[in-house]
Structures are given as C-alpha cells and as structure tokens.
C-alpha cells in the first residue's frame, strides 16, 4: 500500500483516480492545484505523486520543478497524468526524472501498474 497524492485541477479526474487507488488498497490525498499539492506534499510526505500536466496558474512541469528543488520532497516518485503524450512531454518527463506517464482517460490496470 502506498500513500498517493493526486494533483489535478479536474475534479472528475481526481475522483476517478481516488476510486481506482482505493480499490488498489492505496491511501489517497487530493489537491486541485500545483501550489496546494506542494503544500500537502510537505505535510503528508506521499510515496507517489500523480501529477496532471495541464493546469492553470502553475502547470505540471512548473510544479515538478519546484518539487525537485524542495528538500524533503525532491525524491518523490512522480507519475505524469496527461491527455497528450508527445515528444515535449517525454523530454520534460525524462529531464524531471518522472517514473511514468499515464495517458488520460486512464484505466485502472495502467494506473495501478505505474504505481
């Protein structure tokens, strides 16, 4: 069982991830923005972060850059959630040491397998 933080501005995606993760016996926390997610990470110290790329204010790349430069959470396993997997996403994922990319709409086996 892992403690998983989901950062996604879409409440439907949050609920779907929460449902799948709980069925997989994982503990979940939900955040609706990058800033809220970083604050929660500092308090909760999750094992895994599911991070949406397309978010207003601070996108997933910017959020992860802040996480990677913040002591205590910089080594957290991160899985990108995205509707578009292109070369730019793959390059940024490699640069930011992302463990996996899960394409939306995600399915339970794919999401649980990435964790």
Written description of the protein model:
With 115 residues, this protein is α/β, with parallel strands linked by helices. The chain has a single domain, classed as Response regulator (Rossmann fold). Helices cover 43% and strands 22% of the residues. It contains five helices and five strands; from the N terminus they run E-H-E-H-E-H-E-H-E-H. Strand 3, helix 3 (60-68) and strand 4 form a beta-alpha-beta unit.
CATH class assignment: Alpha Beta
- Count of helical segments? 5
The spatial strand order of the largest sheet comes to 2-1-3-4-5
Outline, from the CA principal axes? globular
Largest sheet: 5 strands, parallel
Low-confidence stretches: none
- Average residue-wise pLDDT: 97
Q: Helix/strand-derived class?
A: alpha/beta
Within the CATH hierarchy, at the fold level, what is the topology?
Rossmann fold
Can you count the beta strands?
5
How widely separated are the two ends? Answer: 10 Å
Q: Please state the second-level CATH architecture.
A: 3-Layer(aba) Sandwich
Total separate domains: 1
* C-alpha-based Rg, rounded: 13 Å
Beta percentage is 15-25%
**Helical content (DSSP H or I, runs of 4+):** 40-55%
Please name the defining characteristics of this protein.
115 residues; alpha/beta; Rossmann fold; 5-stranded parallel sheet
């Amino acid at each position: 069982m892992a403690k998983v933080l989901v950062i996604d501005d879409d409440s439907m995606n949050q609920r779907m991830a929460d449902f799948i993760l709980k069925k997989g016996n994982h503990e979940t926390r939900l955040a609706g923005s990058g800033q809220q997610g970083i604050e929660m990470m500092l308090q909760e110290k999750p094992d895994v972060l599911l991070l949406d790329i397309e978010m207003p204010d601070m996108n997933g790349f910017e959020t992860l850059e802040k996480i990677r430069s913040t002591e205590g959470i910089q080594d957290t396993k991160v899985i990108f959630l995205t509707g578009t997997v292109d070369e730019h996403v793959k390059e940024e994922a490699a640069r930011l040491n992302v463990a996996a990319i899960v394409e939306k709409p995600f399915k339970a086996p794919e999401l649980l397998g990435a964790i």
